[in-house]
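User: Can you model how zinc ion sits in this protein?
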Amino acid sequence: MPELSCQDLIRFLDDYVDMTQSDKVRVAFDGHLKNCPNCVAYLKTYRDTISLARGACAEDAAAPPPDDIPEELIQIILKSRPSD
Amino acid sequence: MDGLRSGDRDAFETFVRLFAPRATRIARRILQNEADAADAVQDAFISAMSAIRHFRADCQLTTWFHRVATNAALMKLRSKTRKDIRSIDELLPGFFADGHRIGPKPAWALSPDQILERSERCQIVHKKISELPEDSRNVVLLRDIQQVSTAETARQLGVSESVVKTRLHRARQALRSMFEEEFEVA
Ligand SMILES: [Zn+2]
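Assistant: Here's the modeled complex, given as C-alpha cells:
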C-alpha cells in the first residue's frame, strides 16, 4: 500500500473512529499516526468534537424528566393543534 | 400513531402529555430560561405535527421526537443569538498539493468533560451545533448524540446510508473547526 498522506487519513478518519475499516487500512493509519503529530491532534479534536456534542445534547437517562410542566403550556400546545 | 397522523384530538393530547416533560428537559438545558424553553416546547410540537405524516412506522418515536425537540430548542437559541447558519465547505480542512494540512493546530488544552463542566462553555457548544446547516445537524443529532445506527438514521431522514456517512464526516469536521475557534490553545 502506498504511503498515506494527511489528506488521505483525514478523508477516511470517520471509518477509523467508527471502526468500520479493514485491519489492513487500520494498520496503515496507525503507521501514519505514529509519525505525524498534526494528524494525532486532528484525530483527538475530532473525537473530542463527538464527545462535546454528545455531552451537551444527549438526554440524561439517569434523571427523570421534569414533572413541573405548567398545565397552561399544555393547553396552549393543545390549542395550537392544526385543525383540518 | 395512526390517531396522531389522522389528527385525532385525544391521540394528540396523549402524545403531548407523554412527551412534554422530555421536550421541556431538552429545552431548559439548551435555553436555560423558562420563557424561551416554553416557546421551544411549543415549536417542537408544531414541527412534530407537521412532520408526523412523514414519520415511518418502522422508526423509533422517542429518537425521532428527541431530534425534533432538540432542533426546536437549538433554532430558538440561534434566533436569540442572531447567528447565521455556517457553510460547511468553509469549515473543512485545507491541504497543500503534497497532502499536508494547511494551518495545523495542537489539540485543545481542556478535555470535553472540562469544557462542559462550565455552563457558559456548554452554551458555546449548543450555539455551535445550532449553526450547522439542518441536514448536517440532523445526522449529528441521530448518529453522534443519540448514537443511532447509520441504517436507522438513513431511514429516519429518508436518505441513503452513504449520504448519512458523508454528511456525518463533513459535519463533524465543520463542528471541529467551530469548536477549535473557541477552545484552541491560545
Ligand atoms: Zn498526518
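A couple of observations from the model: Chain B has a mean pLDDT of 93. Chain B touches chain A through 58 residues (CB under 8 Å).
User: Helpful, thanks.
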